[in-house]
Automatic annotation (TrEMBL):
Cross-referenced PROSITE patterns: SPASE_II
Pfam families reported for this sequence: Peptidase_A8 (PF01252)
Lineage: Bacteria, Bacillati, Actinomycetota, Actinomycetes, Micrococcales
Record EC number: 3.4.23.36
Family to which this protein belongs: Belongs to the peptidase A8 family.
Enzyme class: hydrolase
Entry keyword set: Aspartyl protease, Cell membrane, Hydrolase, Membrane, Protease, Transmembrane, Transmembrane helix
Entry's Gene Ontology molecular function annotations: aspartic-type endopeptidase activity
List of catalytic residues: D139, D152
Region annotated Disordered, chain positions: 179-221
Name of protein: Lipoprotein signal peptidase
Chief location category: membrane
Gene designation per UniProt: lspA
Entry's localization field: Cell membrane
HAMAP family according to UniProt: LspA
Length: 221
């Protein structure tokens, strides 16, 4: 009877494949929801806020005011729209590649928000006037010091989540580094075996070495 070929996949790998695929799906779903909400609110803003003065919602702290932004937040990079477009495309590519390693629900949410926000503004740069790659982003949420949109809110929320996950020591793959592990990490050799100091050697080992040396000397004599 032929012997079945061994399965090279470890049990941990096979068990983790399903949850990881689910997290990737949820990341994609959240990104799509952010994109749809961002684009719908921009369409509404262009229709409802055109040719109107700022509409206060909470005094000077929050309001609605339609602007078309050629640069980044706070008016940065107004003459660098093409460069900003390339940067956003690069960010999207990197995040998509990193999503394949995802193993944490927190990172799934953070990546979903970041992807949705980045793609939402990228759509504006690719489709709005004055042309492909140079389009102005539709902003309408006035915070008093700058004006943003739903995509910007998602990006800021993602940045906060990523910072918290980093502080908590939660890796993209779901692994977690505790302070105890960080302290004992230096006591482990590169090959995974613990280092043993000379002072930690057992006396029995030393006596065995001395006996072996004496036997060798006697044999030579």
């Amino acid at each position: 009877m032929p012997t079945p070929a061994p399965d090279d996949r470890s049990p941990s790998t096979t068990r983790g494949a399903g949850p990881r695929r689910a997290l990737i799906v949820w990341t994609a779903v959240l990104a799509v929801l952010v994109i749809v909400l961002d684009q719908l609110t921009k369409v509404w803003a262009e229709d409802a806020l055109a040719d109107r003065d700022r509409i206060p919602v909470i005094g000077d702290l929050l309001g609605l005011d339609l602007v078309f932004n050629p640069g980044a937040a706070l008016g940065i990079g107004n003459g660098m729209t093409w460069i900003l477009t390339i940067v956003v495309v690069a960010v999207v590519v990197v995040v998509v590649r990193m999503t394949s390693r995802i193993g944490s629900r927190g990172w799934a949410i953070a990546f979903g928000l970041l992807l949705g926000g980045a793609i939402g503004n990228l759509i504006d740069r690719l489709t709005n006037e004055p042309g492909f790659g140079r389009g102005h982003v539709v902003d309408f949420i006035d915070y008093g010091v700058f004006i943003g949109n739903v995509a910007d809110v998602a990006i800021v929320a993602a940045a906060v989540m990523i910072a918290l996950l980093a502080i908590l020591g939660i890796g993209i793959d779901g692994s977690r580094v505790s302070s105890d592990e960080a302290r004992t990490g230096d006591a482990t050799a590169d090959d995974g075996a613990p280092r043993v100091a000379a002072s930690d050697a057992r006396p029995d080992d030393a006596s065995a070495d001395d006996t072996a040396s004496a036997d060798d000397a006697g044999g030579r004599a």
